[in-house]
What does this fold into?
Amino acid sequence: MSPAQVSRQHNPLRDPRDKRLPKIAGPCGLVMFGVTGDLATKKLMPAIYDLANRGLLPPGFSLVGFARRDWSEQDFGKIVHDAVKAHARTPFREEVWRNLAEGFRFVPGTFDDPAAFDLLAETVADLDASRGTGGNHAFYLSIPPGSFSTVCEQLQRSGLSEPSRGSWRRVVIEKPFGHDLASARQLNAVVEGVFPPDAVFRIDHYLGKETVQNLLALRFANQMFEPIWNANYVDHVQITMAEDIGIGGRAGYYDGIGAARDVIQNHLLQLLALTAMEEPVSFRADHLRAEKEKVLSAVRIPKDLARATARGQYAEGWQGGEQVVGYLQEKGVASGSTTETYAAVRLEIDTRRWAGVPFYLRTGKRLGKRVTEIAVVLKRAPHLPFNDTATEELGQNAIVIRVQPDEGVTIRFGSKVPGNQMEVRDVTMDFGYGRAFTESSPEAYERLILDVLLGEPPLFPRHEEVELSWQILDPIEDYWARQSRRLDQYASGGWGPRCADELMARDGREWRIP
Amino acid sequence: MIVDLPNTTTAEVSKKLVRLRDDVGAMALSRVLTLVVAVDETDVEAAVETANLASHQHPCRIVVVAAGNRRGTARLDAQIRVGGDAGASEVVVMRLYGALTGHGRSVVTPLLLADSPIVAWWPTWVPPDPSKDPIGEMASRRITDLAASTSKPKPALRRLAASYTPGDTDLAWTRITLWRGLLAAALDQAPYEPVTAVTVTGAPDSASVDLLGAWLGGRLRCPVTLARSRSGTGLIGVRLVRRSGDVDLVRPPDGNVATLSQVGQPERTLSLPHRSDAECLADELRRLDPDEVYADALVRGMQRVTQPRTLTASKAVARGDAPSPKEAEQDIKRLHRAAARVSRAAMESRPEPAAPPSDPDEVKAETRRRLAPDGATTTSSRRRRKGPS
It folds into this structure.
């Protein structure tokens, strides 16, 4: 018998049945812009180390840092070392670190300096020769979007964006993807003018969270949820992302952007799409995307925006035992700013499945606690064979997908209170992802970085989705921009402004306390 | 919390478990499986510790069945550990004495979690036929560990192959997952040529060596030769022979760093740590379906593997059939030295590099200095440090 054939498509050592075999990325390197940023030191570098520790990075993996510092390689190594020590999820192993650190390079330079990119090109070529990165490089732009165009142009000019035959170049960008439809298109033109659409990876780290993927499993792998996942049984859906922190030192970024652009446009609309979409033909990236785009294009914003939206700013108050200042008193915020730190909207989806089911989206800073969840609230039972007093305390059944913290699923339903009287009260049934499976599930960024290196796009939104979500949000932002009155203030540490509660009350509903 | 229940019955144990759950909270509600550990009395602690570590990833109920003295009256001593003493799991240790030692199954059955998978694990011995074993028969997944059970893996592997039933697995197989992943990744790269022969170097007392050889032989449909190193050295190296050149993956004994060399690419070091038993056990608990790839290797792959009686590792190296672990060791040192600048510097306590952005002109000057032909982009040893600007 002749030996098994090997080709690009067929590797005899791979077998679809072999589920243990780890997916190790092929030879490649990562070039990181903005290595001094918070994201890079708190999330990206630790994630890279964790991947190395789990043996998922290819041999010869290289990390090139690019920043406006006159550092040497050692200084860069030190930065990564500290970041890893402080924030990595997996234990620190000297040998793993040493192996990883061998692939560190640092390029000092400013974005407007062509010479810096020539040096980068030289460094990358040198890595291909000395470490066998094979011409495969991903560029992680962890920098303000204002610099995207400069960097992209420079990458193109220096030939870095052009892969040679049989290799790849990818670019990774983080939100915000623009601040409205026009700017999103502009930004996209810049990035996709240099890199083909397949090579652009937009990171929305929420999509790397296990629960979001678990949402797909919950909906499409089970028989018990899908039959009720429609307007016949669902009363409404609440998608919440609450933060307990204020804007911190990010006034420069935040003021003028606001909660809706910062969170609703990307995270919440993505969660809405995953909650509401139809079953994809398969979990291939294009199939998944097709369904998300379909449902996003069916989202309708109510005609009367005054009654269907709410916003506010946090006022000073006590939160978690600490006295905090209000938004308008934060350093760097323009006086009389009308930037919202809380936003809530009611959306509807014009499909047969969701006709008449409102989707309430809310997000805010300085709220009661840090929590993200999707609550699918069911209708009341059409008939209750109990007398009124028995079901007085019975609320509506709900399926709650907790995205963070304590990822998991809660189901709320009625149960009899022990005793000789018939009395039904709400109880919850909890599934904790961390309790049933791994205590230390991989960080979202680990998954996302690995997917970038493997070239697996299912978890990354495409430009079309970004455009669709701006189309949803733009009219709301326009409406808000036309309002001149002062924003409602809400006490820090609470659950948002009164107008948001009124928004729900008008529909005869109320916000869940997450 | 540890609760001792001497001379007891399983009904008592169950009752106590429910009571503890009420006291401590609903901790046992999301256990996903029952892990039944069959072990000798002397090895209980080590087994429980490993299982506890593994349970951090897969909360489970651990039921340890420890057979004690077979003579004397039948007796059951139980111990329940929950909370901090049991990792993320709850542990029931049952010591059986007298005639009861032959009826482990009867004490396990009442303690199984409802409607969830059962995994059996024999940390220190391999039953003659795991799937026919009273405890193995209940389990959907049966984990043996040849490395801890025998120093003569070949006959043991033959026995496991003869009695293989879907759901069987061995930790010797789990230990080579990273090796397999790296070798598969190496074949993902050009040149795409068939592998015509394989040499696996390793200790004769390691079943992992045989299993890796069998897997490679079965998948690549080529002859596999095993070259033997000293006992206790474990798996050392693999060579895949291809027309344009070999793929060599070598991990010198006692190290956690390996070298990978293949045509068209520079030699590279990579970390290939020895995996702990807990890690391997956790890995096994992740997949509860039969491992068909293991079955292929165990049952069919073995026939492609030959182990010439006299072929020692050093002879194979001398003949040019196997990669040399000594050379690999030197290469690792050399490559480490070459790169030590960065890593060592980072390990030393150094003053924080300039945190505020450096002066743009200085940055540009640094760029140009490095770009200059003699500036040697990556090997500059002249360091020109400036204080924070």
